[in-house]
Design a protein that fits this description.
This is Phage protein. By secondary structure, the chain is mainly alpha-helical. Helix content is 56%, strand content 9%. It is built from four helices and two strands, in the order E-H-H-H-H-E. The two termini are 24 Å apart.
Length: 66
């Protein structure tokens, strides 16, 4: 298993901070599985497993300052 550092994405960071409460509430009302913990396992188990391994074996530059 290889440990590595994730490259921070400014574009994704801004997107995450600017997606407002109203937009999330609207999506949650329309899409049944939106925002539910563990929904990724039901939707695409292979991708969810891959993401879990990636998340556990890498770290962010921001983790160094914690």
């Amino acid at each position: 298993m290889k440990l590595g550092m994730r490259k921070p994405s400014v574009k994704k960071s801004i997107k995450a901070r600017t997606t407002g409460k109203i937009k999330r509430k609207a999506k949650k009302a329309v899409v049944p599985g939106y925002g539910k913990k563990g929904a990724g396992w039901a939707k695409n188990p292979k991708k969810a497993a891959s993401n879990k391994v990636y998340k556990k074996t890498t770290f962010s530059i921001f983790d160094l300052f914690k």
